[in-house]
């Protein structure tokens, strides 16, 4: 019985760890998307400024 309980708790800990890794990966993806979006917007803004200055 004790052996089974320890086995189950180990499996549970592994599952929790896996879930946590998935969650952090999701957060990283969200952050990366936000950063890339802001970079794109910044590039567009600067390009628009350059266009105005050229004409």
TrEMBL record:
Domain of life: Eukaryota
Record protein name field: Phosphatidylserine decarboxylase proenzyme
Organism encoding this protein: Biomphalaria pfeifferi (Bloodfluke planorb)
């Amino acid at each position: 019985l004790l052996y089974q309980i320890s086995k189950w708790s180990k499996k549970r800990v592994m599952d929790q760890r896996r879930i946590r890794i998935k969650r952090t990966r999701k957060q990283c993806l969200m952050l990366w998307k936000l950063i890339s979006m802001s970079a794109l917007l910044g590039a567009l803004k600067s390009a628009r400024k350059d266009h105005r200055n050229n004409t």
